Amino acid sequence: MTLTLRTISREQHLAYIQSLPAASHMQVPAWADVKGEWRSESLGWFDKNGQLVGAGLVLYRQLPKIKRYLAYLPEGPVINWFSPHLEDWLRPMLAHLKQQGAFSVKMGPPVVIRRWDSNAIKSGIADPDVKRLRDVEATHIEPRAFEVADQLRRMGWQQGEEDGAGFGDVQPRYVFQVPLSNRSLEDVHKGFNQLWRRNIKKAEKAGVEVVQGGYEDLPTWQHLYEITAERDKFRPRPLSYFQRMWTALNTEDPNRMRLYFAVHEGEAVAAATMLIVGGHVWYSYGASANHKREVRPSNAMQWRMLRDAYALGASVYDLRGIGDSLDESDHLFGLIQFKVGTGGQAAEYLGEWDFPLNKLLHKALDMYMSRR
């Protein structure tokens, strides 16, 4: 296959993404505006007829004091990953990025390698000998994903280190998804476990109302998000990040980002952001107050977001990252336990891969990152 690669305009890039059933929200042109501290570029692959057949958003992060960059394609590029000649796609990309001053390239192939349905996960949790998701027999394995990994290794790409929790990569390797294609909403609701169904009913009885918010409601979101950060011990992003995200994504497509609140007795007690690209819908960030948890606002909000995703014609509702630990004493266990109640499935992606264009600088960056 003869492919040529060149920089494309944002308009070309967006038109290509819009022609696909779905793509990662981190591969739309507007994501570059969200990540304003990185320099960005849209790349396009063209076939011999001059037809655009692939696209990639590259984010460049400069090294301190020298004009050399880490080139990062989060959950991308958007190419034919199952091509038997993956080298034809990636070699011109590496050559171009080297020309742009990149010393290292990091990418995240959007390729699922294994899936586990909720019954398989539940039996894994119940088995005292099983500690990790990967110890459970997968419900579905994608053999072509192993071929992708083999091709990448032969080309010299290196797989990101696994940290055990599935968060060794910049983006989560393990995610939880609720498939919506060829299912009725009734089927989706029936797929919830008893606890989820009970909690949805409880929220309804208590008078929890789920509403959509706008840009002007982001400070209310931020308040709940900072409470959550303190409770769960993570560093929160500033309000300006979410304001930038809202403006950038919704300027590109007025339905790209949504904000939801679960309101009880006039008070917002839980909130979430939702992202939409074609048929793929993500629950992106979530937050909740420390009180009124007994009225189950989070379950009510997820059910509303799922119904809205379904109404949009989405093929998948993606609850994003989970750890792969099935050990109840693990701090990430609650995450998988909450999400498995939706009756969806865990998916393992190929993870992130690095290509050191300058081995010395790449190693220096590795050492710096490990010390952070």
Question: Which secondary structure elements does this structure contain, and how are they paired or packed?
Answer:
Elements: E1 4-7, H1 10-18, H2 31-34, E2 39-46, E3 52-62, E4 69-73, H3 86-99, E5 102-107, E6 112-117, H4 118-126, E7 140-141, H5 143-155, E8 158-159, E9 174-179, H6 185-191, H7 194-206, E10 209-213, H8 218-232, H9 239-252, E11 257-264, E12 267-277, E13 280-288, H10 297-311, E14 316-321, H11 333-340, E15 345-349, E16 353-356, H12 359-371
Parallel strand pairs: 4-5, 13-14
Antiparallel strand pairs: 1-2, 2-3, 3-4, 5-16, 6-7, 6-15, 8-16, 9-14, 9-15, 10-11, 11-12, 12-13
How is this structure best described in words?
With 372 residues, this protein is α+β, with helices and mostly antiparallel strands. It has 2 domains: 125 residues, Gcn5-related N-acetyltransferase (GNAT) (Aminopeptidase); 218 residues, Gcn5-related N-acetyltransferase (GNAT) (Aminopeptidase, 3-Layer(aba) Sandwich). It contains 12 helices and 16 strands. The protein has a 9-stranded mixed β-sheet. It has a 7-stranded mixed β-sheet with strand order 1-2-3-4-5-16-8, sandwiched between helices. A hairpin with a 2-residue loop joins strand 11 and strand 12. Helix 7 crosses helix 10. The longest helix is centred in the middle third of the chain and has 15 residues. The termini are far apart. About 2% of the residues have low confidence.
